[in-house]
Design a protein that fits this description.
heterodimer, A: mainly alpha, Ammonium transporter fold, 64% helix, B: alpha+beta, Alpha-Beta Plaits, 22% helix
């Protein structure tokens, strides 16, 4: 087997870039929660990296990208369990889409997507979920929800892929999936105590901005890496990613100004993330104009969508539905209008391609969103009924950091009195 | 002896301090406090959700002065702290029954 050194290097580097997004996400979210829960949020994200890394090697990768089970395009078999047969080419990638990278490079690149997707869900259930049951949720969800949807849309044997659905880097698999799952699990665990009447503002917006910067940086690996080669298509995806993030930032703060408010820093980075979300499925199928339109559209639509949770009464605490579900839907659908063969793939409606592509994209939105919501609801409900997903009220009041992890994030104030308070230290071992 | 307590806007501290020095006051105690009067709090906005903060940061100045200069000191504080905008604060004066300087044990007016 001949591997292309440039392609391989780019995909391996991209895998590292995408893995770095999950700590970035942890800080993006961590800044938005109250100070008593920031370690709990960081811990959920870092632990998700660990759990999914193992689940991916032992099962989930094979279910997503293994030989198709029964020819239905629904799920793979366990042929690659434990990374067995890893010298065999990844099934389905033949002809024009043949891979020129070692299959293990593909395994680790896709693993980083499988990690960040459940990590995104933590934003919906901030401040109120027990740690152990959360890990159980991530493990089950990776196998029962992520792996099948990845097979549908990313694997050339998947039913959505075969139908001609275009999802370059995960509008359905990552964004819509995580957003719908976030709404489902938030429905199961219920609202934070006091929401929405008690104010729960972000405790550290600079932390959130730092996390957003890391996300933007890592997103180049996410999107341009999905070309699976160091080539012209990767460059298209790279510049489109940046264009959409920039347009999304300006779109969100424009809405803030037009609604009579001030331009907020949280709004700016939320808009950038919304634009980056929406360009994820589309970065390899649109041109520069398309990327700009998609970015602005996502920034505007998501800034309006985040208030829907108050009307729905669902405490989607950090707006995973409003940003990732809605942004993913915007990006996935707009391929149907703005896709152009000049970049890659099929022509959308505005480029003379008819409405067929838009219809297929719409079906992919519905299928991935509905499956994710339903399956996630069942998994969360099962865990809640058996071992219990929700923290005890007194633990939730105290905060995750001390109640779940026996640590506190900050020791700025009160330390002088604490030093006089008769405390002592002992070796817990 | 009078205890003068003043609540002022934090950015006015330097002006008030200079005025007090001119008026012959040699010491004061300052603390950071929060509260509200006719000035309501401020609004913060995160992703479109508005959070009302009802308590506004202020500084509280406390000083003990001789009876004779009390009115003059109050006037100095008021002049220095005034912006003529809502939230400028308040000054009040209380009689002091006794006073001790810890270092020397001096009492009453000698300890001022």
């Amino acid at each position: 087997m001949h591997y292309n050194a440039g392609d391989t290097a780019w995909v391996l580097v991209s895998a590292a870039l995408v893995l770095f997004m999950t700590p970035g996400l942890a800080f993006f979210y961590g800044g938005m929660v109250r100070s008593k829960n920031v370690l709990g949020m960081l811990m959920q994200n870092f632990a998700t990296m660990a759990v999914v890394s193992l689940i991916w090697v032992f099962g989930a990768y094979s279910l997503a990208f293994g030989p198709d089970w029964g020819g239905f395009g629904l799920v793979g078999t366990l042929h690659f369990f434990g990374l067995a047969h890893s010298s065999q080419p990844v099934p389905g990638y033949t002809g024009a889409i043949s891979q020129h990278i070692p299959p293990l490079a593909f395994v680790v690149f896709q693993m980083t997507f499988a990690i960040i997707t459940p990590a995104l869900i933590t934003g919906s259930i901030a401040d109120r979920v027990r740690f152990g049951p959360f890990l159980l949720f991530v493990a089950l969800w990776s196998v029962l929800v992520y792996a099948p949807i990845a097979h549908w849309a990313f694997d050339p044997h998947g039913w959505l892929y075969r139908m001609g659905v275009e999802d370059f880097a995960g509008g359905t698999v990552v964004e819509i999936n995580a957003g719908a799952a976030g709404l489902a699990i938030a429905t199961v665990v219920g609202r934070r105590r006091g929401w929405p009447r008690s104010p729960m503002p972000p405790h550290n917006v600079p932390l959130t901005l730092m996390g957003a910067g890391i996300l933007w940086f890592g997103w180049f690996g996410f999107n341009a890496g999905s070309a699976l080669g160091a080539n012209n298509l990767a460059a298209h995806a790279f510049i489109n990613t940046n264009t959409a993030g920039a347009a999304g930032l300006l779109g969100w703060i424009a809405v803030e100004k037009l609604r009579g408010g001030k331009s907020t820093t949280l709004g700016a980075v939320s808009g950038a993330v919304a634009g980056l979300v929406a360009i994820t499925p589309s970065c390899g199928f649109v041109d520069a104009v398309g990327a700009g339109v998609i970015g602005v559209a996502a920034g505007v639509v998501c800034s309006l969508a985040v208030s829907a949770k108050f009307r729905l009464g669902v405490d989607d605490s950090l707006d995973v539905g409003g940003v990732h579900l809605i942004g993913g839907v915007v990006g996935t659908l707009l391929i149907g209008l703005l896709g152009t063969m000049a970049t890659n793939g099929s022509n959308g409606f505005f480029y003379g391609g008819g409405l067929g592509l838009l219809g297929r994209q719409g079906l992919a939105v519905l299928a991935s969103g509905a499956f994710s919501f339903a399956m996630t609801w069942v998994i969360a409900k099962a865990i809640d009924k058996s071992v219990g997903l929700r923290m005890a009220p007194e633990d939730e009041f105290e905060g995750m950091d001390t109640a779940l992890h026996a640590e506190s994030a900050y020791d700025f104030g009160g330390s002088f009195l604490r030093s006089l308070g008769g405390g002592s230290m002992s070796n817990a071992q | 002896m009078k205890l003068i307590v003043a609540i002022i806007k934090p950015f006015k501290l330097e002006d008030v301090r200079n005025a007090l020095t001119k008026a012959g006051v040699v010491g004061m105690t300052v603390s950071e406090v929060q509260g509200y009067g006719r000035q309501s709090g401020h609004t913060e906005v995160y992703r479109g959700a508005e959070y009302q903060t009802s308590f506004v940061p202020k500084l509280k100045i406390e000083l003990v002065v001789h009876d004779e200069i009390s009115a003059e000191v109050v006037e100095a504080i008021v002049e220095a702290a005034r912006t003529e905008k809502i939230g400028d604060g308040k000054v009040w004066v209380l009689g002091v029954e006794d006073l001790v300087r810890v270092r020397t044990g001096e009492r009453g007016a000698d300890a001022v």
